[in-house]
Amino acid sequence: MTLVKQVLTLVAAVCWAAGAILFVHCYDTGPGWTNLLAKVLIAGTALAFAVAQPYVRRWLSKVSFDQWRAIDAETDRTEANPHVRVLVVMLTCAIALTIQEYIGGADRYEVWFPYDGSEYWELKGFVWWSGWRVIGYVLIPMLVIAFTRGERIRDYYLSARGFFRHLWIYAVMFVAFSPIVIVASTAASFRDMYPFYRMANRSHLDLWTWESLYIVQFIALEFFFRGFLLQSLRRVFGSNAIFVMIVPYCMIHYGKPVTETFGAIGAGLILGTLAMRTRSIWGGVLIHVGVAMTMDVLALRGCPPMGSDRFCHT
Questions:
Q1: Measuring CA to CA, how many Å separate 117 from each of 114, 129, 173, 209, 268?
Q2: Cα–Cα dist 184/191, whole Å
Q3: Where are the domains of the chain?
Q4: pTM here?
Q5: Distance (Å, whole) CA 193 – CA 314
Q6: Angle between helices 167-184 and 282-300 (to 10 degrees)
Q7: CA nearest 200: which of 106, 104, 293?
Q8: 67-71 contact pairs (CB < 8 A, 24+)
Q9: What letter would DSSP give residue 52?
Q10: For residue range 180-227, what is the model confidence (pLDDT) as tens digits?
């Protein structure tokens, strides 16, 4: 089969699956669990069809196992105290995530700083949320790095050189994720959640202040998961650090739509592999910001018009 036919076959399978899922979502009037089961079966069928193709299996091996072997080949695995390193890194991870859950949430702001009648009280809650993401995901790990002998913060995938060389890969990923995001945006659970800041449609100031806070927390998140965790564990686990990282990364999506939570597993795997190969977190930042802003734009289409004094969701 020629390359063109191979690509067209895969595109047709993806389009069929997306169309079928959208049809089930729009026209299935049965219980919610039957709707979810139908979507899972459709997606599973499309995935099984793709994996059954020999050229797909060869391509998957090239972008996964071959990349992990390459990461291992260029990694110095001579860590003097591996148990201490893993203990420190995973304790830092546990502490940072616990802070986010019990201190850094917008819901905690609402409890500790009750509504005072000010115009931007709710937006201040997301300033709190974003600020604690920076503290937990950036400042605490950086302190750990600074006090670890022989470690330099700039080695934790902060360089943009690898990102620019592989920019086309992230562009392809964004295009590939876009149909999934568009289909997901039709779900009621999606419209009830996005944008997180329900008053984003009140004014341009609200909208762009919110998006700026959103971007800042994505940079913090990528540094923590794709920078700190991967580089800290690399000399102990090699490419297996990716599989360690995707567990807490998936868990921070609990409470979001189930499709997004499952998607975080695949996204973590892909972005983790790319971060270790390119030694840069900025591709993950680009994908996260691009997808998140696309989701907000799609969600805002269903919101009352800006300036109407009616907001996106309760």
A1: 9, 20, 43, 20, 40
A2: 9
A3: 1-63, 82-300
A4: 0.84
A5: 9
A6: 30
A7: 293
A8: 67/239, 67/273, 67/277, 68/238, 68/239, 68/242, 68/273, 69/239, 70/277, 71/234, 71/238, 71/239, 71/273, 71/276, 71/277
A9: T
A10: 777 777 777 777 778 888 888 888 899 999 999 999 999 999 999 999
